[in-house]
UniProtKB/TrEMBL annotation, chain A:
<dbReference type="InterPro" id="IPR045864">
    <property type="entry name" value="aa-tRNA-synth_II/BPL/LPL"/>
</dbReference>
<feature type="domain" description="BPL/LPL catalytic">
    <location>
        <begin position="24"/>
        <end position="222"/>
    </location>
</feature>
<dbReference type="InterPro" id="IPR053264">
    <property type="entry name" value="Lipoate-ligase_2_inactive"/>
</dbReference>
<dbReference type="Pfam" id="PF21948">
    <property type="entry name" value="LplA-B_cat"/>
</dbReference>
<protein>
    <recommendedName>
        <fullName>BPL/LPL catalytic domain-containing protein</fullName>
    </recommendedName>
</protein>
<dbReference type="InterPro" id="IPR004143">
    <property type="entry name" value="BPL_LPL_catalytic"/>
</dbReference>
From TrEMBL, chain B:
<comment type="subunit">
    <text>The glycine cleavage system is composed of four proteins: P, T, L and H.</text>
</comment>
<dbReference type="InterPro" id="IPR000089">
    <property type="entry name" value="Biotin_lipoyl"/>
</dbReference>
<feature type="domain" description="Lipoyl-binding">
    <location>
        <begin position="45"/>
        <end position="127"/>
    </location>
</feature>
<dbReference type="InterPro" id="IPR011053">
    <property type="entry name" value="Single_hybrid_motif"/>
</dbReference>
<dbReference type="InterPro" id="IPR003016">
    <property type="entry name" value="2-oxoA_DH_lipoyl-BS"/>
</dbReference>
<keyword id="KW-0450">Lipoyl</keyword>
<comment type="similarity">
    <text>Belongs to the GcvH family.</text>
</comment>
<dbReference type="InterPro" id="IPR033753">
    <property type="entry name" value="GCV_H/Fam206"/>
</dbReference>
<keyword id="KW-0496">Mitochondrion</keyword>
Amino acid sequence: MAVSQTRDLGLPLIKLLRLKGVPILQQLHLEERLLRTSSDNWCIINDGTIDPTIVMGISGKPQELLEIESILRDDIPVIRRFTGGGTVIVDQGTIFVTFICNKDAVPGLQSYPQPIMSWSSLLYKKVFQGIGDFRLRENGILRAWRPQVWRECESITKNRWVHHTSFLWDYEISNMGYLKLPKRAPEYRQARDHLEFICRMKDYISRSSFIDRTIEAVGSEFLLRSAELEDAHCTLGSKFEPSSRLLRKQELGEAIFKSLTASQS
Amino acid sequence: MASKLWATRAASYLKISFQYRGFATVIKDLKYADSHEWVKVEGNSATVGITDHAQDHLGDVVYVELPDEGAEVKQGASFGAVESVKATSDINSPISGKVVEVNTKLNDSPGLVNASPYESGWIIKVEINNADEVKSLMDPDQYSKFCEEEDAKH
């Protein structure tokens, strides 16, 4: 899709980087580098990642969140990412959308977790408008504007923030078996397992249409400039070492031991 | 109104200056950074934490990433992070020096940052390099005004 050339003056500039099938660890490293060493605003869309991969938040404990024995048996990679939030399993059916912005990029937006999430919710509301009602209602009461087709998380520095979202355009039911029910879950979730709580976006919208609508929504708030991966790498500081990493099998094995020890005490 | 009166009396009893504004509290004798950390300097030692304004805006803290003892911290630079509401937020040091102690209670009780940001929710203690750095920080009144202006803009 051609990026529209007609925009009002005064909108903040954002560089749009479209990727396809980039491994999630590589994407996370790029995001963290851009957060820490770039002064530009970025929107990164990664259409799928190659292999099924589990991605935990910064404080995630494998023994609490994962079915480790199954993960080791099936050789599923587990990553600890630099942002907060919960655990997801991503694969080629996942579409990733990330915003990396200066704290004053969006007028009137305070760079704290909830305002940023509210801002992104409004943006994605535009994307899904007329597609489906993903609002969570229980007993007729609106609990949350929380589509069960996406998971989001953030990292906020002194002058910038990153908000990344993984959209479940499609998923393998069997993959959800690698995840335990989180201890810290929102009240409305009420101990329902993952499959009760999520749905496939492909039942509502095509992949290309979702990406096009997302770009259009971003274009309503920013002045878009297409960028290539090489452009992103050129702006990066060479000294920065990203913190997102793959957990070693030994660490996962130790987590099983911790789990057994905890259950016996 | 009654709670404000109670808070004022409690503050007087505890001999702390308590500026109740209906939202974030600010403590006398501390200095404040524009990234919402506080520092208490005593000689060449300093204690650092995040302010009530910060913890209020971050939400429930579920994890604190602490630096190692012996690590160097630099004024204005990140030394750790707090996790809350699906987000990690950098903690920036208001002062330069060497970390001599970290609050290990935060490992099991990260919520202390919310419940007691200026007391038991302290984060690191630092052996400071240059006491003059404190001059660039805000006093309580300046910080209160800064928070009001920041909130009013959004």
